[in-house]
Amino acid sequence: MTKKYLLIIWLCLHYNAYAQQNNFVIPDSLSTKDYEYFSKNILYEEKDSIKESLYAQSWLAKAKREKNFGQMAQSYKALIYTSDKKLQLIYADCMLTAAKKTADYALIGSGYMTKGVIQYDRKEHMKALDSYIMADEYISKTNNQYQIHKVKYGIAQIKYYLGFYDEAIALFKECLSYFKEENKRAYLNTLHSLGLSYNRIGKYKLCNQMNQLGLSEGQRFKSLEMQSYFIHSEGVNQYFKHNYPDAIKKLTKALPALKETKDLTNETTAYFYIGKSYWALKLQEKALPYLKKIDEAFQKQKYIRPDLREAYELLIHYYQQQNDKELELYYVTALSKVDQVLIKDYKYLSGKIHKEYDTKNLIQTQRNIEHYWTIIITIMTVIIAVLVYRHYKNKRLFEELMNRKPETTRSLVSNNTSKETELDINPEVIAAILKNLEKFERNKKYLEKDMTLAKMALLLNTNTKYVSKIIARYRDKGTVEYITYLKIEHIIKLLINENKYRNYKNKSLSDEAGFGSTQIFTRAFKNQTGLSPTYFINKLRSQQHS
């Protein structure tokens, strides 16, 4: 068969998945081949191979013609590994449909496992776990040790994702012993996963041993596909050992291979720890582009992990310091969405893995983790929501305070002479007291410490009873409230108009306004403005430098 003929068939295969399955005609050169021939000639390693896809389609066509459901399932699996990623899930479902028409538990379990691997690769962790659990249900009824350990590996990956590292390590160790003798690539994958798990529980020396062993074993097997992953793992390990330059060097070295294979998970993790390493070295400007890659991955593909969440906190902190409110708000909002995804995934995954897998296969020591994580993440979400609400509330109150009209920043004055008739006081006496009251305000006598009702009565040349009535009617406040109001308004004016007061501590501002204590001052400021003096001063400073 000529290469040209193969290419024409290949283009036709990619045109439509449904047409592939129903309209394909086996080439004459393959029409007499048996199932064993097709199985041996598909290596499950050469992605997008024209030749292997042709064999897989011929295998499927033969199985359909002969209504051999077991062979149909196997041929669909071959199609999964030789086709475009967009078609893989379709073929996985077809594989399951065919497998279920047989009585072969191993084949049905393999179908679910294959589907779970595809879903995990697509970052559909909840769906992947469901498929793994279904695979375990069928495969546990067989003696197929390879499939049994493959399921264990899949469950261990979910355990690692959830943060149950000790349990993941126990499963990975079981897989390591088996795969070492049975499957070189699976053995290397398990070494890599085991190293990552050791890192997460702080056993950096063991992590390093797994990485070095993985590199040497890969060389011995002449299988170099995993080399960049062990370098990547060691880069993360060096970050936790505080060897930040070495971490940056190793992770940067691993990145090109990860990009080439479109491994978003490890690529994003590399960006995160490069960014964190620069941050730890006090090189925030260099860290920013890498930390922002975490948000890019989340926005484009909804990929996030609990440890990667910290990138948002660092970005929010940075833009708070830069007084860039637009970007601060963007990352605060994005973090809220991230937490929603994490809560949803964790609640589902942890509940599912305990209820439907651990009860059969693992020790019960971690049964309370689901409840623990739910509480912790819920508390985190509430705290974030409160902080966001407080941020916008404080911002609104500050703007309202700064935008008040000039007359409202002066003492309260009422010219409503009709109120004179409501008081049992001679109108001439009222006028005299009001005139003295305005003088009291103008000369800022309210700033004197321990300003009491009796003192005010002396200053206004009247008695305490009249003072209380006049202030209540013409200033709409109680006497103490009125004095406090004037003191706080005085401090607000000073802070807005004179920069030097922005360097004062609360105690100095309290003394300036004539309060009896710093605590009374800060409480009064908060009650009157809705803001703390510290927040108000910081906002004034940020406006000054913007």
TrEMBL record:
Keyword Cell membrane: no
Signal peptide bounds: 1-19
Record field: transmembrane: 371-389
The organism's place on the tree of life at top rank: Bacteria
Keywords: Membrane, Signal, Transmembrane, Transmembrane helix
Molecular function in Gene Ontology: DNA-binding transcription factor activity; sequence-specific DNA binding
SUPFAM superfamilies to which the protein is assigned, alphabetical: TPR-like (SSF48452)
Pfam families per record: HTH_AraC
Membrane as UniProt keyword: yes
Domain HTH araC/xylS-type: 427-539
Coiled coil: none
Name recorded for this polypeptide: Helix-turn-helix domain-containing protein
Organism: Flavobacterium bomense
Classification of source organism: Bacteria, Pseudomonadati, Bacteroidota, Flavobacteriia, Flavobacteriales
